[in-house]
Amino acid sequence: MAGRKNRNAELRIPEILEAYYRVLIDEGLEGTSISKIAKSIDIHPSLILHYFQNKDNLRAALIELIVSKFKSRHLINFDHIEDDQERFDALMDMIFSYEWSRTVDPGVHFGFYYQSFRDEHVHKLFTDMFVWFRDFLHDQFVDFNRKGVIQVSDEVKAADFVLTMMEGLEFHAHFLAGDNPFEDFAQSCKKTAYTILKNRGV
Predict the structure, then answer these.
(1) What is the mean pLDDT of the chain?
(2) Do 91 and 126 fall within a single domain?
(3) Which of 5, 84, 95, 147 has its CA 20 to 30 A from that of 118?
(4) Where in the sequence is the domain holding 17, given as residue range(s)?
């Protein structure tokens, strides 16, 4: 009996979190409710409460899922590329791509980002996520710097710079881009990053 319950939970919990994510995209944080989530996958709201107890726990579980999705290395793992310059180019292409920017829906991402100012647990989850990515970039830049692909004096600052520029792409796309494609400004940012990373700009 316990085994069946565990299997049910393994199936139901991801399904509920995926439904929560989809409802958030459609309704926003303010318009999302447990009843709407339940209705979207044709279950009773009490089942969601059974697994998560309350909406705060449900939110925390989704944020943790989003963070784990962001931290998945399958999109930024280029170890199969032997040439150092080509591997660096592939990394930068991905970081400044629309695909990477939309790893998580921006409305959901920035909705939770807003909550990080008021909720210490959310703040910690986001901090851990960005520190993880900064550390990943730092390690990459140390390797590329050692091999002469880039020339930087401070790999930590270089990682901070690229991460901050990457995050700013969505702000630009939402507020300043107008009818211009996302890729236009992203390419400009990537060129700027190349110039700085290859000429001891940091």
Answers:
(1) 92
(2) yes
(3) 95
(4) 2-53
